[in-house]
Structures are given as C-alpha cells and as structure tokens.
Amino acid sequence: MTVLVLGASGTTGSRLARQLIEHDIPVRRAGRSPSADVRFDWTDPVTFAPAVREVHAVYLVAPLGVADPEPIMTPFLVEAQRAGVQRVALLSSSAIPVGGIGARLADFVPGWTILRPTWFATNFTGDHLHARSARAEGEIVSATEDGRVPFIDPDDIAAVARHVLTGLEAPRRDLVLTGPEPLTFDDVAAELTTHTGRDVRHRRISVTDLSARLQQDGIPAPFADLLAGMDAAIAQGAEDRTTSVVEEITGRPPRSFRSFLTR
Ligand SMILES: NC(=O)c1ccc[n+]([C@@H]2O[C@H](COP(=O)([O-])OP(=O)(O)OC[C@H]3O[C@@H](n4cnc5c(N)ncnc54)[C@H](OP(=O)(O)O)[C@@H]3O)[C@@H](O)[C@H]2O)c1
C-alpha cells in the first residue's frame, strides 16, 4: 500500500507525506536531498525504477520549469506500469490547458487523477516573491488588475491527493481545486495588512514590466513571460470561480485565505 511522494520536500508533497503518516499509510518520500527515503531526480532516469519498486500509488509532481514535461515523464510512467503501480495523482494546475501527459495517464495506470489547483495561498508566505516584497517594500506587485483568484490552502490539495490515492476508487478525471472564495490582489493586500499588522498594498504593473521583474528575480525569460501571461489571464477572469471538489472528495469545505493566514 506504499505511496511514493515525488516533490516530497515541496509545498504539497511535504503536506501529503505528513498526512499519509498521520493516517498510518506507508510513505516513500522521493527527492534529491539526503533526507529523502529514496533518491529521485527527473534528470537521472536510473533513479526511476528503485523509486517505484513495490509501490501502490504515486503522487506525481512534474519536473519544474520545463515547457513540455512529457518526454521526461513518459519513461517514469513506463517504469511505474512495469512495477505494477495502481494509482497516480498528477499535480497540474488550473492554469495549464488539459492534454499533454495528463491525457495519457490512463495508458499507464488503471486509477488516475489530475489535480488542477488554482493559485496557492502559500505564494504570500515564506520565501516567495510576493512575501519578500510585502516584507521589504510593503507591497505585492501583479498584473492581475481587479482579477480574482480563489486561493487554495495546499493542505487542502494534499487532503484531496490522499483521498484519491488511498480511497476505494480513483476518480479517473480532472479535478479543479479551489478555495472557498475568489479574492482580488487588493483583498489579499488587505488581509496581509490585517494579519501582519503592517501596511501592505497591491501595486498594479503591466505584463511586460512583471516579466522583467520576475527575470530580475532570477526566473528565465520564457518562464517569466509565461508566469506574467498567467497574471493577464487572471485579469481577464480566468480564475474567477470556485468548485466544490475539495468538499466532495474530503467531506469538509476548503479553508479560506484568512484561516490559512491565521494558522
Ligand atoms: N504555486 C502555485 O500557486 C501553483 C498553483 C497551481 C499549480 N502549481 C504547480 O505546483 C507544482 C509545484 O509543486 P509544489 O509547489 O508542491 O512543489 P515546490 O514547493 O515547488 O517544490 C518542488 C519540488 O520538486 C522537487 N524537484 C525539483 N527539481 C527536481 C528534480 N530534478 N528531480 C526530482 N525532484 C525535483 C523538489 O525536491 P528536491 O529539491 O528535494 O529534489 C521539491 O520537492 C508546479 O508544477 C506548479 O505548476 C503551483
């Protein structure tokens, strides 16, 4: 019944691993750090077979910053199929078009799910650019204008992943995961002001200026353009909706941005 968690040191993988352990489900944490249970590196295919050996289910976090992950992920899925893996939950995004490797998961495993979360609430905490600029300059900077996003608590993504990987049946469909209410970046700035006790405002910039800002922060130009374009999509309303999927799958409603900040 072992669940292999890729990206186990990351935002969602670490939460999923913790939740599985809390439910007494055997976990194998994969990654490149010495603290991982098994070494796993997308750039090193010899690490694939040992990672999936005697594994029932896999939480699949794609290689980061790769425009087309399919050529890298296909050999991994071949190994997973060979090892008899029964379930896969692929972490995708509501902002990524349906298709690609996700559309081929059923070729490799009988029980598959594609998780399509909206933007993470954690993007405003820790070392993320928004959090750093909120701390250093008292502002979050975006090209989202008045666009709204139903930010999701990554603990809720992990809870859905645990259910679909270990429950009676895999959904065999795409699940769009959202928090309970769409917020503008002005709303987020107001919440950050309330919760940190210091003024945080939302500064609106153009898509071009946002891409330049992201590149100054070390993000390669093509990926910076992609991310800035996602802000433009938010401005046009692409993320302005909620779904009931977290509650349908876990039996409890998703947590709000406010309760996330409070915790
Ligand atoms: N942030 C958002 O708002 C948002 C919204 C929707 C979807 N997403 C999606 O979330 C995904 C990222 O997931 P996350 O936030 O849970 O992870 P994360 O916090 O970004 O951490 C990345 C993980 O990937 C692992 N990793 C990086 N390079 C690797 C490599 N070469 N081989 C093996 N593992 C590697 C890292 O592990 P080690 O360094 O330990 O190996 C780490 O655990 C992205 O695909 C993104 O599209 C994000």
TrEMBL record:
<dbReference type="InterPro" id="IPR036291">
    <property type="entry name" value="NAD(P)-bd_dom_sf"/>
</dbReference>
<dbReference type="InterPro" id="IPR051604">
    <property type="entry name" value="Ergot_Alk_Oxidoreductase"/>
</dbReference>
<protein>
    <submittedName>
        <fullName>Oxidoreductase</fullName>
    </submittedName>
</protein>
